[in-house]
């Protein structure tokens, strides 16, 4: 029974860690947790068939993963206007940088 309890606890930890990272908008941590999810689930599955409680816990992990993915998508949508503005002004920034570079070179002579 200890293995089953450990497996349930591990599933809860996997899902809660994803949920926490998404809620905190800790994208680096969320990425790490998402990349670690498949190997962790694979290792847990290797311990034997899932019982009903574990299948329910797996569903919770899936739901938490889906929620985290929605957080990421919303954050990406929120960044899009700023990225578009940066793309639109790219030529101006390059011209400014080139002008600044030539100004710096002229003042050093």
Automatic annotation (TrEMBL):
It comes from the Bacteria. This is Uncharacterized protein. It comes from Massilia orientalis.
């Amino acid at each position: 029974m200890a293995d089953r309890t450990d497996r349930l606890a591990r599933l809860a930890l996997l899902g809660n860690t994803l949920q926490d990272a998404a809620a905190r908008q800790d994208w680096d941590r969320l990425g790490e947790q998402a990349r670690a999810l498949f190997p962790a689930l694979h290792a847990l599955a290797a311990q034997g068939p899932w019982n009903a409680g574990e299948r329910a816990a797996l569903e919770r992990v899936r739901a938490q993963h889906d929620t985290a993915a929605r957080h990421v998508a919303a954050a990406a949508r929120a960044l899009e206007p700023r990225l578009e503005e940066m793309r639109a002004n790219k030529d101006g920034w390059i011209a400014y940088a080139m002008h600044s570079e030539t100004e710096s070179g002229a003042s050093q002579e």
